Amino acid sequence: MRNQPPRKSASSFVFKLFISLVLFVIMFTLSIILGAKNVSLTDIWTAMTNPGATGGDISVIRELRLPREVGGILVGSALAIAGAIMQGLTRNPLADPGLLGLTSGANAALAVTFAFIPAVGYFGTMVACFIGAAVGVMLVFGIAALRRQNLSPLRMVLAGSAVSALLAALADGISLQFKISKNVSMWTSGGLIGTTWGQIEAIAPIIVISLLASILLSRQLTILSLNEGTAVGLGLKTTQVKIVLYVLITLLAGAAVALVGNLAFIGLMIPHLVRVFAGTDYRTILPLSAIHGATFMVFADTLGRMINAPFEVPVAAVVAVLGLPFFLFIVRKGVRSLS
Fold first, then answer.
1. DSSP alpha helices (H): ranges in 34-120?
2. Is the pTM of this model over 0.85?
3. Tens digits of per-residue pLDDT, 199-250?
4. Separate counts of helices (H) and strands (E) for the chain
5. CA distances from 11 to 8, 265, 285 (A)
6. Correct CATH for 11-334 of 3.50.50.60, 3.30.70.940, 1.10.3470.10, 3.40.50.300
């Protein structure tokens, strides 16, 4: 009888994982089919299984839609996992890479790179985004920790808003001064338009390795999310684990910005929605957040392509419209604990 609860828990997780993967596959398939020009399932299968096949629709699938949606999968997973880790580390229900300065810091670093090192290349751009994300989160935590006795979620969100506004103004000022607004706006609009296989090849290893490392540390994150004193009592090296997790957050958020620009709310929404049916164990939350983050990002991109076809609504706008009401709901729900 003692082994029954773990078996039930494992079977429940497998069932939730299976349903999540089914939803993901359905959404991914629809994202390839739907667009300014709809394509057939036969063409999709041919494009993915027959390298020698050519043709108009097959080329559209291979060179435009597949890299775009694969990029959306990577970005959605990265931001969802980064948000879940931040919420667990800070025990802050409002933690999100876009709300706590990471993506705005990466965005500002992007503008600086375009202005002063224009020939840096895509890999150099990624490195700059990682550095910017790290600077952004350090500024936010530095400001929020000025009053250590009141390091509340609301204070962190306010600090994140202030730092994000500052870094956004810095990026805009540099863009105007060096006349690179058009180049920067192509990233900051948060779009997947023009995503290439070369960009995917550069960024996928970083995101995939960071995702796997995050899941491997999910048990430690679960302990940290409950109580730091308990974590120390259980022998957990909290400082080392926190450093590794913050490095992973920086890599995930920086890589996402390097590919699609500044996106908020994904890292806030997805972990909250996953907790509704997955509980509080990050060994379950993290893998399910990765899948649902990818599904949501693909859904938002597909919706942006369909709202006003053949024109496109930027995916950042779609995510903001969906995410802002959710953010306000979370604030209202927890308003008593945020002061």
1. 41-49, 56-60, 66-90, 102-116
2. yes
3. 899 899 999 999 999 999 999 999 888 877 777 777 788 888 888 998 898 8
4. 15, 0
5. 5, 31, 15
6. 1.10.3470.10
